[in-house]
Amino acid sequence: MSLEVQDLTIEIDGRRVVDGVSFAVADGARVGLIGESGSGKSLTALAILGLLPDGAVAAGSVRWNGRELIGLPDRELAQLRGDEIGIVFQEPRTALNPIRTVGRQIAESIRIHEKASKRDAATRAVAEARRVALPDPERIVGRYPHQLSGGQRQRVAIAMALACRPRLLIADEPTTALDVTIQAEILELLRSLVEDDGMSLVFITHDLAVLSQIATHGVVLDDGRVVEAAPVAELLTAPASPVTRGLLRDATATLWRPGGVA
């Protein structure tokens, strides 16, 4: 397994908010963490890369290719982020630096992790912008985040996360802030890029319909605990947990197409 999470617990100011979460992601697998707001899914994802908020303490085990990540020094975790493990957040407006061009932000990871020259990194930034289907990539890399649409900003965030070809992508509700049409485009883009690169994927969402479009296996969380884990097709057709049945009732009908399970 490329990623193994075992008995993960997270406490914030002495209150346990994630309690004994375990799951594994094999090489090339696409696994979703799904649950309502407050279920602990995003905190679980942040714990993988040591990005928990101040006051949060993680225990248990998170192993990446056999290497324990919990307790790893920040310097070593920083080397993993963007190089071996990429992450895309829900709201690109807050993830992107408003005073730097998007091209410079895409190039930054390439310069840091691949020791590329400024010129080479700038050339690569254009190629990465083209890869995520940004329009007129030669021009768009010179723009600032506020000059782009929400969907374009999310494509920039994806380009940044994947520029160094990580082996694992963590996507934390990357389509929630987008309208349904753009949401579907971003999901298709993510799925195609993950498949093309043979990456593993951890996809976080509250929407079972969205999960059905991109993941093959789902881990359902409620109140910080795993309540069900099964292939997504099984979660859609024979949910075992009342929590999963509730998520199924709330699934976005406009995205859930019969036979459309990834």
From TrEMBL:
Any idea where this protein resides? Cell membrane
Keyword Transmembrane assigned to the entry: answer is no
Pfam families linked to this entry = ABC_tran
The UniProt entry lists membrane topology as: Peripheral membrane protein
Q: What are the ABC transporter domain coordinates in residue numbering?
A: 3-248
Q: Give the superkingdom in one word.
A: Bacteria
Name the UniProt key words of this record, in alphabetical order: ATP-binding, Cell membrane, Membrane, Nucleotide-binding, Transport
Which PANTHER family does this UniProt record tie to the protein?
DIPEPTIDE TRANSPORT ATP-BINDING PROTEIN DPPD, OLIGOPEPTIDE TRANSPORT ATP-BINDING PROTEIN APPD
Family (UniProt): Belongs to the ABC transporter superfamily.
- What this protein is called in its record is ABC transporter domain-containing protein
Q: Which organism encodes this protein?
A: Microbacterium deminutum
